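For reproducibility, we list the full input for the acetyl coenzyme *A complex.
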Amino acid sequence: MNARITGTGSSLPSKILTNADLELMVDTSDDWIVSRTGVKERRIAVAGEYTSTFASEAARRALSMSGISPEELDLIIIGTVTPDFPFPSTACIIQNELGAHNAVAFDVSAACSGFIYGLSIAESFIRSGKIKKALVIGAEVLSRIVDWSDRNTCILFGDGAGAAIVEASEELNGILSTHIFSNGSHWNLLYQPGSGSRNPASDRSIDSKLFFINMEGNEVFKHAVKAMEEAAMAALEANSMKASELSMFIPHQANIRIVNATAKRLGIPMEKLFINLHNYGNTSAASIPIALDEANRQGRLKKGDTILLDAFGGGFTYASAMLRWQLDSNQV
Ligand code: ACO
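The corresponding predicted structure, in tokenized form, follows.
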């Protein structure tokens, strides 16, 4: 049994935070942010909006495109580092909100690689014959763990969610391959020190700002480019393909310089890249499924296209997925 994507969806907060807004909050400038990151604006959740708010809306849109009902789902996986709560999983909350009573539901913690990790798990469950229909979501509200007084990090991130329905198929095409990798030797270059068992909530941990993202930006940058190249090469080699044969490359939307450097090392021309980070910033696990859904709904993906997804994130984690697109434009 093979696996294919039969629907995509995404959901973003309506509140927009521009670089001009950030100029009023920290010592930065639109010029600096655009030249170092490519980001022009990002979406930010307001009071009453949570990771599950965007995850459930993205899921409903993906279900609607695929034409299946929530009761038909066997599996729900959410990649997130900003769940509604440490427990229960946000996936269980979504299962309840959708009425997907027959689905087993769990979260995956793989930072920005979370969506491809989820896709890989869903693909493996389908290939083994264990399940037939899965909902895979990447969803984040990073704005709640960003230190809005730290100009090194607050300019980078945004909120949102993307989703895909993955179904069993007897045809060979669909998800051609997934590769997932971990390298824990650099876990402390990008992490959230507080909220777990090492630094639980206390006056000290709150005063020391341990609940915010902690990042060595320069180091992360270097590792990101190498790891994304490695993950992409694994996908190309597994499918005996050259980069020039790709129809589209959808990298994790971290930073335009990381994306350009990765594409250059792989020899992928700019016109094959899908980029939307200027509008949304880095939405971690949500970035690839939001981009995939936008490309799909904009009619940029044609049946038979070969699409490479490529991610890198805290952990470190990195991952790739090669897709042969199966949706007709009239199904979108
Ligand atoms: N506005 C103005 N100046 C700033 C800002 C800002 N927002 N932030 C930092 N600076 C200053 C620094 O203080 C420093 O000043 P100094 O020279 O006086 O000390 C100067 O700009 C250069 O700082 P660097 O950190 O060297 O700048 P760099 O070119 O490396 O860009 C950045 C920083 C954008 C964070 C970059 O390292 C990066 O993108 N790293 C990857 C991080 C990332 O994407 N993380 C997301 C999670 S992982 C992932 O998704 C792949």
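The CA atoms of residues 26 and 149 lie 6 Å apart. Residues 176-331 form a domain with the Peroxisomal Thiolase; Chain A, domain 1 fold (CATH 3.40.47.10). Both points were considered when choosing residues for closer inspection.
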